[in-house]
Amino acid sequence: MLRATCDRLDRLGLDRPTLLVDETRARANIARMAAKAAAAGVRFRPHFKTHRNAAIGRWFAEAGVTAITVSSLDMAAHFADHDWDDLTLAFLVNPRQLPRLGDLAWRLADRGGSLGLTVDTPEAARAVRHVIGDTAPLWIKVDTGYGRSGVPWDDGPRLKAVAESAVCTGLLTHAGHSYHTAREDLPELFSETARRLATAREATGRDLLLSVGDTPTCSAVDSFTGVDEVRPGNFVYFDLMQRALGVCRDDDLAACVACPVVALDAARGRVVLHGGAVHLSKEQLPGPVYGLVGRLDGEGPRVLDAAPVVDISQEHGIVRTAPARFAEVFGRIRTGDLLPVWPVHSCLTGEAALPTRLLAGATSEA
Amino acid sequence: MLRATCDRLDRLGLDRPTLLVDETRARANIARMAAKAAAAGVRFRPHFKTHRNAAIGRWFAEAGVTAITVSSLDMAAHFADHDWDDLTLAFLVNPRQLPRLGDLAWRLADRGGSLGLTVDTPEAARAVRHVIGDTAPLWIKVDTGYGRSGVPWDDGPRLKAVAESAVCTGLLTHAGHSYHTAREDLPELFSETARRLATAREATGRDLLLSVGDTPTCSAVDSFTGVDEVRPGNFVYFDLMQRALGVCRDDDLAACVACPVVALDAARGRVVLHGGAVHLSKEQLPGPVYGLVGRLDGEGPRVLDAAPVVDISQEHGIVRTAPARFAEVFGRIRTGDLLPVWPVHSCLTGEAALPTRLLAGATSEA
Predict the structure, then answer these.
(1) Each residue of A258-317: pLDDT tens digit?
(2) What's the pLDDT score for residue B299?
(3) Which residues of A touch B352 (CB under 8 A)?
(4) Residue A39 distance to chain B (closest CA, Å)
């Protein structure tokens, strides 16, 4: 059933593991999230850490996006070099980078933009103001329940202390515990996150903006209520983790890795791919599953639960299917063919130094 | 107890996650393995996939190494560009790359070198000979029990068929199941692997060379008996996985990631690092443990089991220690300090596009 897919990939002239991005699907994912933000009247500041790709950044710009989120200074500098002026670095300020952060903040200010920075202590807030001045919008990182970093949402005294130590723009959180929340509970998690941020704002006694951002809750809610800004990132590609959470359809999956087949073993129901941890990452779903082979031909199921990548090492991926089904699934595949593998976590796949091919609808059109 | 370490890292002028390689330790690791191979009279063909670094490659050359192993065509081309002439690509041939493999094989042959290739079917062996001619040494990939790829060692007819389809140089295996073998059983696993390769050779009826390569067994044995070539790679750095297996000492660990501290929370016993899955990989030891903070000051324990990275996301790592021990371990640490984190699997850490700093003995000398 995969022959048509292999024939299509054959025509791309690839000879090594390559990230394939479906432009039609990715643009649809962007448009949908942008429309939801516009309908709610909230600022859409998508996180660019998933794709980190200037060409894909332009798809966002063409959808009306003017403000973005990044997770490192290097990523901020990269997109500033590609004409993005309004950036938030949603990662606690590393004091050692203050000089370079200042250089970038002033460079953006000179062209009418800004570099938002994130802090969780009065000392950090004062250090930013001391080194950078008033140029950078300051966001207080708040922990609304994820437990990774930020001021706990119910620690009023500390929130007040940070807010009083320097002029701040808003409160920012990442509700990463959404990745461990059942689909039906995600809308309530979004609301709870907004309520906790509002409580935190009250403690500061300041009129601060509220910014949230994670793909599961932002995809699950019908409307962004109670916040001023949303910063999801993964939704541009989605992945098997989001699929397992139930916040995307198979038709929304916009990025896969084309992996060369290097061995076939029908008797054991195995296919050996050139596609390992350096391409797909070691992120796993229960099984373990490190990825799923799928189709690009627009017929039948696109993602084959019957063909999981069950083991992975640095460069190898092992796909296993029931030997009784091997002929049906892989019957006409040969070594040298390329198979599309949908990754568990597309942010980490995008991080791998893979060659990338942008395809206009190649994963959705026949 | 980590203050002296932070002071030393402070002097390096780093401001972001950076791979630190201890030249003294890495050269000692190389020298020890090279000496063991020389004593046994076997060829030492170390795998370069762990470091993938031309400067570190020169340390091998200075230890007398002239032949290397790589795991992709791109890696082969990289080291061919850095004056390595005798390469084995220990990854099953991807037929789609035959034209490029041929170009590289001929380029190496022109300067007196060669590109060894790996096959597991008569068809692949014939395809190599058809496209590339007799230039490339051909190795038959044998599965001696790992179960990842290659001709099963006891499948005599298939081994014979491959060996008869083209002129072959030898039999090559990777006993990756050594990573799940108890320390005391590793020498026997090495011997068993050699015996199984010898059995496979008998089935071919040819006078073929035997090549093995995995760091656990190659580190555990006193002598390389029963093989012609060894291809370990990880041993240049070692890592927490090898430490857990018991095949290296803490003093042999030669690569760590310097990670900036972005938050400290004594009450919860937590340190938040800029150092996540993109730097350390998602490889884990039971716990889970994604890395261990350690010292560089030459006093006391170098790797702190009391300070594990217990959670990891794309850019963040969370270190947790018992709150009662927090002051002792992290008492004088500030945000902005850099902490060394020893990775679980150094091959994947080396794969991350990290800036790399080569230090002459910085992790072992005061």
Answers:
(1) 999 999 999 999 999 999 998 999 999 999 999 999 988 666 677 888 899 999 998 999
(2) 64
(3) 351
(4) 30
Give this prediction's pTM.
0.93
Tally the domains of chain B.
2
Q: What pLDDT is attached to residue B349?
A: 85
The closest CB to that of B71, out of A72, A282, A315, belongs to A315
Give the residue from B192, B212, B177 showing the smallest Cα distance to B69. Answer: B212
Residue type, B73: L
**Residue A34 included in any domain:** yes
Domain extent for B300:
3-21+248-359
In this prediction, residues B320-349 reach a mean pLDDT of: 93
Q: What is the pLDDT of residues B129-168, one digit of tens each?
A: 999 988 899 999 999 999 989 999 999 999 999 999 999 9
Report how far residue A176's alpha carbon sits from residue A191's, in angstroms, rounded to the nearest whole number: 14
Last residue of one domain, picked from the residues B211, B237, B263: B237
Q: Indicate the length of chain A as a whole number.
A: 366
The residue among B160, B166, B161, B164 whose CA lies nearest residue B135 is B166
CB-based contact B69:B50 (threshold 8 Å): no
Residue A352 has pLDDT above 70, yes or no: no
Q: Do B313 and A176 touch (CB under 8 A)?
A: yes
The ipTM (two decimal places) reads 0.90
**Does residue B174 share a domain with residue B263?**
no
Same domain assignment for residues A157 and A274: no
Q: Looking at the structure, do residues B303 and B255 belong to the same domain, yes or no?
A: yes
Q: Do B262 and A73 touch (CB under 8 A)?
A: no
* Domain end position, chosen among B214, B237, B260: B237
- From the list B209, B211, B213, the residue with the least C-alpha distance to B231 is B213
CB pairs under 8 A between A and B: 135
CATH code, B320: 2.40.37.20
Co-location of A76 and A195 in the same domain: yes
pLDDT, tens only, B236-295: 999 999 999 999 999 999 999 999 999 999 999 999 999 999 899 999 999 999 999 998
Whether residues A277 and B281 touch (CB distance < 8 A) is answered with yes
Contact B1, B208 (CB under 8 A): no
Contacts of A121 in chain B (CB under 8 A): 263, 335
Q: How far is A313 from chain B (nearest CA, A)?
A: 9
β-strands A138-143, A151-152 pairing: parallel
Average pLDDT of chain B is 93
| B16 with A94: Cβ contact below 8 A | yes
Residues of A in contact with B348 (CB under 8 A): 277-278, 282, 314
B338: closest chain A residue by CA: A96
The candidate with the shortest Cα–Cα distance to A209, out of A237, A230, A184, A186, is: A230
Place of tokens 């192993």: B69
Domain shared by B264 and B219, yes or no: no
What confidence score (pLDDT) does residue A152 get?
Answer: 97
Q: Do B121 and A97 touch (CB under 8 A)?
A: no
Inter-chain contact B72–A97, Cβ cutoff 8 Å? no
Pair (A105, A206) in one structural domain? yes
Tokens of A220: 């699950």
Assess contact for A189 and A178: CB atoms under 8 A: yes
The tally of CA atoms less than 13 A away on the side-chain side of residue A158 is 17
Distance CA B210, CA A361 (A): 48
